[in-house]
Amino acid sequence: MTGPPQSRQDARHLERSSRCSVKVSDRACGITNSRVASCGGRRKVDRAFICSCDRRIPSPGKTSMLLVGRYTSPFSRRVAVSLRYLGFEYEHKAINAWSNLAEMRSYNPVGRVPALVLDNGEVLFDSNAILDYLDFMVGPEKALTPLEEPARHGVMRIIVCAMGALEKMVHSVYEVTMHPKEKVHDPWIDHNLSQTELGLDWLDQIGQTPWMAGERFTQADITTTIVAQFALARFPERFAPGTYPNLDSLSARVMELPAWQETVPAPDEAKLKVSIPTEED
Fold first, then answer.
1. Which domain holds residue 36?
2. Alpha-carbon distance 232 to 51, whole Å?
3. Is residue 225 part of a domain?
4. 13-17, 109-113, 223-227, 233-237: which range is least confident on average?
5. How far apart are CA 158 and CA 201, in angstroms?
6. Is 43 within the bounds of a domain?
7. CA 221 to CA 155: how far, in whole Å?
8. What does the mean pLDDT of the chain come to?
C-alpha cells in the first residue's frame, strides 16, 4: 500500500488486496519437519510442526466461525473489523455479557467478550489472542500485526498504548454504570481519563506515513481508530472532535473501509443496557 484510500472505491480496493488463501502442504498430515503456507506462493512458516489429519486449518472465506460479543464492545469490534478486512466469513452472536453471564461463560470461563468459535468447535477468547490467531492463519504477507521484527514491535507498541488508553476508559465507564450515583467516585474517573488523555496525546503525535506504523495498513490503525471513536462516543465533553486532529484524520480514512461499515452496531444492539447481573439473572 502506497497511500491512504481517497474514496470508498479506493478503500474497497485496499481491503480486497488484503485477502489471500492459506494452505497447508500435503506433508502436514501426520508429523513433518515444516509447515508451509501459501500466500501467493509457498513459504515456510516454522519448523518441527506436528499436525493431525483431523484438524482443519481455516482459510479466509471458507469458515463457519462464530464471533460472540456485541459490536458496541470495542474489544469485539476490533476483532470483527479484522475478520472482515482479512476476508474471513463468520456468524455473529451479539451477547450482552452482563445480562447473559452464564451463557457467556459457556464460551469464556471468565465471562468476557469477545470469543471466537472456530469451525472445529474450539473456542478462542481475548481479542489479542484471537487477532494473533487470525494473523497466523493469513500468513506474514497479510498479517495485520507483522510476524517478524523490527516491524512487529513497531506495530505492537502502538496497539499496547491504544489498548491501555481503552482500559482506562472502561474503568471510568464501569465506575458510573456499576455504582449508585451517590457512590460514584469522581476523582477515580478523572484519574483514569487523564491516563487516557496521555495515551491519546502520544498516539496523536505519531506521524502517519501514511499509516500509524508506516506505509502499510496494520492492526495499529484499526485499534487506534476503535479507541479514538470509543472516547468520542463515551466522553464527548472530554474528547471532542478536533482534540486530536491526526487521530480524526486517521479515523475518517479507516471508517471508509467496508470492514468498518459492515460492523456498525445495529440499532437494537446499541440500545442494550449494561447492568449488574443479579441472582435472578
1. 26-55
2. 45
3. yes
4. 13-17
5. 12
6. yes
7. 9
8. 81
pLDDT digits (tens, 9 = 90+) for 59-77: 666 668 999 999 999 999 9
Q: 108 lies in a domain? A: yes
Q: Kindly state the average pLDDT of the residues 162-189.
A: 94
At position 152, the amino acid (one-letter code) is R
Q: Which amino acid is at 9?
A: Q
User: 247-275, pLDDT tens digit by residue?
Assistant: 999 999 999 999 999 999 987 765 545 44
Q: How far is CA 254 from CA 6, 24, 245, in A?
A: 11, 32, 14
Grid cell 501514511 in the structure block, residue: 210
CA dihedral 21, 25, 30, 31 (to 10 degrees): -110
**216 close to 223: Cβ distance less than 8 angstroms:** no
**Which residues, listed in sequence order, are joined to residue 75 by a DSSP beta bridge?**
none
pTM of the model: 0.77
pLDDT at 243: 96
Is residue 12 in some structural domain?
no
The amino acid present at 203, given as its one-letter code, is: L
Give yes or no: residues 195 and 256 share one domain: yes
Longest dimension (CA), the chain: 65
Chosen domain end from 104, 126, 143: 143
Strands 90-93 and 65-68: parallel
Both 130 and 168 in one domain: the answer is no
